[in-house]
Amino acid sequence: MEFAKLGQHMNILNTVGSLALLSTVLLAPNALYATDCSAWSQFNSTQDYLESRSIDPLEVDDALNASQFSRGLEITTELRDRELWIDILSFPGDAPVVTGTAAIMKVGRLAGGEFDALVLVDNGTPIFLVDEPIAREVGCQFIWGREGGENPIHLLRILMKNLKRYDTRQPVTTGFTGHLLGDTTLAMRINNEVLAQEWAFSALE
After folding, report:
1. Low pLDDT (below 50) residues in the chain
2. Residue 117: which residues within 8 A CB-CB, separation 6 or more?
């Protein structure tokens, strides 16, 4: 192989290796810098209620509870070390099952500051965990109250695929295969039969 071509291949490999290392750093749960929404800038908004990372994490619960889009859902948020804990205080009986899931996405978009994970809590007991990069990924693309966000079913698949048990730090399921129909069905099942039943519906009115 000519030296020039060999050099080109080495440069490509070095670039790929550098990008892989960068991705590892950026996506690590304990990354030094919090994830922002720059990677999904097409979903930025000038509307106050959709401004990303705009609310203190300890005040995001009050903002969402008072929102006209809350559907009567009430949550509370608390910082525990590097974790942002979310507990549902009230889940209206006539609210759609995905109301609690939407609250996770909203917190992922709006909460400022730095944290390593969103922890879904029931009466002080941590049940599930979503690493910060995933919470930001779905939150930054989630739009409510108007058109313009990413397909919520796509975001649901991402969230359910990365939902972990708090005690084991292991995924709730490893059954996602990359097949659209099967993954969508699985995501809906995990949301309805696991996340909602074990977390959101604990506060059902």
Report:
1. 1-33
2. 29, 82, 83, 84, 129, 130, 131, 132, 135
